[in-house]
Input
Amino acid sequence: MSNSSQSFFTWLKNVLLALIDRIYPQRQKKQRNTGIMAKKLVLSTGNIVSGGPSIIRKPGAYRSNLELTNSLRSNFLAAKQDYATPSTSNGNGTPDNGLSGLQEDPSQYEITVKMFFLPTSDVPSRARYTREALSLVMKELRVPSVSLLIVSFPEMSFEGDCEWEADKKNAAQGNDEEELATWAQAVEPLHDEGLVRQLGIAEFGSEKLARFLAGVRIKPSVDQINIKNCCNVPPPLVKLAKEKGIELFVHSDCTDVLPKGTLRELLGQGVRGAGVLADPAEDVEEGLRGDLTPQWVVKYTAVVRDRGVIENKGYFAGAGLVEE
Output
């Protein structure tokens, strides 16, 4: 590996680790005391509409997955290009592209945040993950609160030959006990503290939603569903949502937005990777080693109220690395 490549690797590695090292150093210290070397990684796309406000809606059932991974790859490439030219440090160890924050007063925006709990994530840690993610978004946009927080639980979908079948299958998906506990411990407190004005859920059919509403203190204002394989929203869900005053939104996000293999590919060696991970099989010894597990992804969108345009949109992704 050339000196230039080694220097870039060291810089990028430090950028990935610096943010969470400052936010939650106690966790790393505790794990070192147990003999387990664990790191937290936070990846950011930045504002993916920074070229100008966007009102474009691209089709595609898995658009969020591609949008996230492609944006992260673009960021890594831009970082390499920036590193190749002289730059001025902002003094905090993380890059500052000058595009953070909103152009107008926060009251002029509808800010929607969607928190994806991934299948590989630790359920008892969801409250911490949610606070970390929301804190990153509010810092990025420079706002004291957000309009809507939607939570997406793993292994939930609307799959079926028709809306009736999809609604029936959905009733047996997920884990009611874990979802209610997460809502009470990770989500409702954020509403109580004024950090989030409204709460929402994703992929809840009529039976799932009815059971969920019976067990929560603060009901969701929104239910997002992906009906890519169905023709219409299930009538029982429409009826229940109307009775309970819940808005139904259709979306095109996938639930497992960042699979484990995809994250390793993003950070690994090769033309499509950032080159942060070691790869002994390819004779690359320099880099991070260990078990890399994606924990959460958060998607945020800031829409100017009176114009309906997206001014700022992006993703953060959190992962854990248990070092070898």
Notes: Residues 46-52+62-77+106-257+294-322 form one domain. The chain has a mean pLDDT of 81.
